[in-house]
Structure formats: C-alpha cells, structure tokens
C-alpha cells in the first residue's frame, strides 16, 4: 500500500512538473471552486430551518401589527415573509408564541393551529385515525402549555366520545389538566394566565366547553374555578386600585419635589407628602338639559345685543269652538208625576239662552339635550404637605474671616423663610396638583428647621483643617522667604569677602613683584648677574608685552579691563 502511494505521489509530481503555468492555474481554480462549493453546501445544510407560526396568511394589517407587537414584547424572534406569513425559529418557539397569542385573543378567525397526526399508510382504520388525532391534539396542547414560563410540567387528558345519532345521547367532550408550577411563580393565583391556558385547551378541541375543563395543581386544588374567585377578584381589584393611586401620588410628588428643589435646593426640601383619595366606583350619570333656541346670534360688531333667543318655538295650534242656543234642560218625571225641578229654577223654565265655548291648544318645542357620562375613577381629595428649611449664614469679622465660637466651631445665624416665599411655594404646588377648593383639597407649606448638627460638625472640621493648611502654607512660604533672604545676604557677604581677599592677595603679589623687579633692575644697573627662573622671565616678558600693548592700543586695553570688572 505504501509503495502504491509512493508511486502515485511520484506520478503526480512528474505530471505537475510537466505542466505549464496555465495548466497549473486551471487546476488551482478548479480546486478552489470545489472547496467553495463544499463550504456553501455545509453552510446551507447546517442553517436552521424556520417554522410557520400560523398556517394561513394574515389578511388584516392591523392583526399583523398587533401580533408582531406582542411577539416583540415577549422577546420572540420572528420574520415576516411575503403574504404576511410569520416564521419562527423552531417548534418550541412556535408553541410558546401560539400560547401567548391564544392567551391574548390575537389568533385570526378561521385559522387552524393544530397539526393533525401525519398518516403515511393507506391501511389505517378509522379507529386508528381517531386515536392518532387525539394523541396529536394532546401532544400539541401539552407542548403549548409547557412552553409557558410559569409552567414546569403539564399532564393533559382529553376524552372525545364517539358521535351518537341523537343529541340527547351524545356525551360531552371533557378535558383534565394537572399543572406543575415553577418555584416562585404565581401561576396558581394569576387568573389571566389560567384563562389563557383554558382557552388553549378549548380552542384545540372542537365541542369542548368551559364547564367541561378542569385545571388543577399537583395537590389537586382546582385552579379554574373562576365563579368561586369573587373574593380573590375583589382583592386583586383593590390591589390594582391602590397601585393606581400610588403611581398618581408618585407622579405628583416627583413633579412638585423637583420644582421646589430647583428653587430652594435639594438639601432644603426633603419631606413632601401627598395623599390622594380616589373614588374607584363606576358611576353612570344621565342628565336631561333644557336650553333656549338661538334664532339669531349676537353680532360682535354692534355695540348692543341684537341676538334673538327664545325659550321655545310654536309647533302647531289646535282651536275648537262650541256654541249652544235654546232653553235649558228641564228634567221631568214619569207621566202623571210632578217634575223634579228645584223651586229656585222653576222661574227660569221656558227661557231662551246662548253659550259659546272656545278651546285653543298650542304646542311649543323646547331644546333638550340628553347627556350620559361614565366616571371611573375620580379624584375626591388631594392633600399636600411640604417642609422647607431656611438658610444658615456664617458670621464674619471685619477682616472677612469666619467667627469662631469660644467652644469651637463656626458661628452661624439662621434666616427663616418669609411668609411671601411660603405663599409662593404653596401657589406653585396648587397649580402643579390641580388644586380645587370645592373638592376639599389642602396644601400646607411650612418652614421647619432641620437638624444639621452632623453637617455643621463636618463643615467646622473641614474649615478648621483648611485654615490649618492655609496657615501652614503661609508660614512655610514666610520661612522659605526668610531662608532665601538669608541665603542671598550670605552669598553677597561671601562674594564681598572673597573679592576683598583676592584684591589683598593681588596687591601683595603686585608689591612683591615690584620689589623683585626693582631689585633686578638695580642689579642690572650695577652689572650684577641675577639668576631668574623661567616663570619670572615669562612674567617679565608678558608684563613688557602688556605695557607695550597698552601704549599702542589703549582703547582695547580699557575695554578688556571693563569686561574684567563687569565679571567681578
């Protein structure tokens, strides 16, 4: 095997050596294309496939917007393809998203979310199909329920009876679910989640009613007994009402406190209490209002009121007139019996009379408005109290330094707020909270002195430390200045003493040199041979040279002497 590999390698080397540059480039290109194709194949085959969230396209843009917004709130990744088809990453994500949409009633109408168990054989009986259908529904429902964050595990049993010919013989579809909540979850008391789980089961099975669904926890306690949760609902409603009041109080407190702290400072405004009494009961008020007709509005360009306002306008008039003429009514008894006319009216018998009766009925229309208003909730009363501290000012002496008390510490003076400032702060608060005197609102602003002993102690300690540091720096600068002055004086004195010593030495050396030169000169005059050292001879030559130069160039010598003196 090794020899075959070796021979093959030798052949490839020989073949490679026999090829020209174009052939080698073509082979390299083919190999590169094959590698890129393999990478693309593995990349495409390894890419995660997506699952359709809803089997049918979403027809309404509003429904698509609501569904995508809810998925974004839940943090579920999705994509919308052409035709408003939503895709998610996998089956678990799909089960979780479907459970959320079921709970929020966001599933479009006419959409079927349940995948029937797939059948590949042609010899399956109807009984097997029913069993497969029920098993598929149970599995899908279980997956949807277990995808909820608060559910750790779920056991689902669904009983679908056989169809009967008569409705009275048909047994109802029933379902029982045992939920195992996750530790720390509020599943057993969260009515909204329980209703969502019940809707998932109800929509999954055709013909399943709410009364035939039983949801319990692992201890057998029924969780979907919503009819018996009246007390719990009342407590939940009270809790939500209190939360609403607290949010309103926090909103007003933050608004008022920020405004006051911007004016007086955060340290001077600390305590602000707001109490809001709200009426949470739902009220419906119906009002019938009658108001006049405005036939002509007032012209604002005229100096007088030319409007035509009437309380009512006529709709129609009904007039009826009744006239009578003749004798009055004479009651008589039976034949042969005296009549029953009273004696006072007997003299009026056979008298002619005339009467006229006129009835007029006029119908008028009035303006009428029917108003129906619902109030819930409503603020009954707002109470605000705030404490504002005054100002503490330091006392200074004539030199501008803070006064120190005999027992230690800075001497201060307290300046309380004036009544005008308290009234201005109260007016600001009234405008901020919507003060209504008729409602019984109350706003109290007081100037209360805060305890600042700890703050003053820290300020005093800091001030004393700063003063000590300032004095130490001042004394250090003074000492440094004195040392500098002493050093300068010492330097001047030393230089003066050195200059005087050098002048004295030069003077002595000059005198000795003059004496030596005189002695040499006298010896030469007397023809006495004088032995001189090489240094003395050089010095004499240099001296004669300097004398000659001074005679020949007096200005240069003077400039040289000035330079020497300036350096000294």
What does this structure look like?
Strands 1-3-2 form a three-stranded antiparallel beta sheet. Strands 4-5-6 form a three-stranded mixed beta sheet. Strands 7-14-17 form a three-stranded mixed beta sheet, with helices on one face. The protein has twelve helices and 17 strands. Helices cover 47% and strands 23% of the residues. It is flat and about 225 Å long. By secondary structure, the chain is of the alpha+beta class.
Shape: flat
Give the radius of gyration: 59 Å
N-to-C SSE string, H for helix and E for strand: HHEHEEHHEEHEHEEEEEHEEEEEHEHHH
Give the structural class.
alpha+beta
In helices, the fraction of residues equals 40-55%
Low-confidence stretches: 113-122
